[in-house]
Amino acid sequence: MSDRKLIRPSMTETMDRFPARTSGRRKQVPAEQTNAESYYYLKQMQGRTSMVVVLTDGTELVGWIEWYDKNCIKLNRNDAPNLLLFKHGIKFMFKEEELRTRRRKRSTPAK
């Protein structure tokens, strides 16, 4: 019989190819709060941007955001009473201007 060579490399060869971390430091955990939500609300509040808020039940409300909190926003409306909306009841929101431009694109016939 002849000497057979192992197919699998030895443990020392593997350690040479892939050195262990020497720093001992772990990756930093991403920030829990990015402040993107705060930035968005502040920008819309300062410009008194007319917003469409769609609730989880499908109701659409139009108004501008007067203030916000960790759990709720206050929506001012022109032709109806102002509302305090819990964030967990909001499905999504967008600028009313986007709704108008979308409607215009749909009504324009395709060429």
Radius of gyration: 28 Å
Low-confidence stretches: none
Query: What structural class do the secondary elements suggest?
Result: alpha+beta
Mean pLDDT: 85
Q: Looking at CATH, which topology of the domain at 49-106 would you report? A: SH3 type barrels
User: How many helices in DSSP terms?
Assistant: 3
Order of strands across the main sheet: 4-3-2-1-5
CATH 2nd-level architecture of the domain at 49-106: Roll
- CATH class annotation of the domain at 49-106: Mainly Beta
For the largest beta-sheet, the strand count, sense and barrel status come to: 5 strands, antiparallel
Q: So what's the overall shape?
A: elongated
Summarize the SSE layout with pairings.
Blueprint: H1 11-17, H2 36-46, E1 51-55, E2 60-68, E3 72-76, E4 83-86, E5 90-95, H3 96-107
Antiparallel strand pairs: 1-2, 1-5, 2-3, 3-4
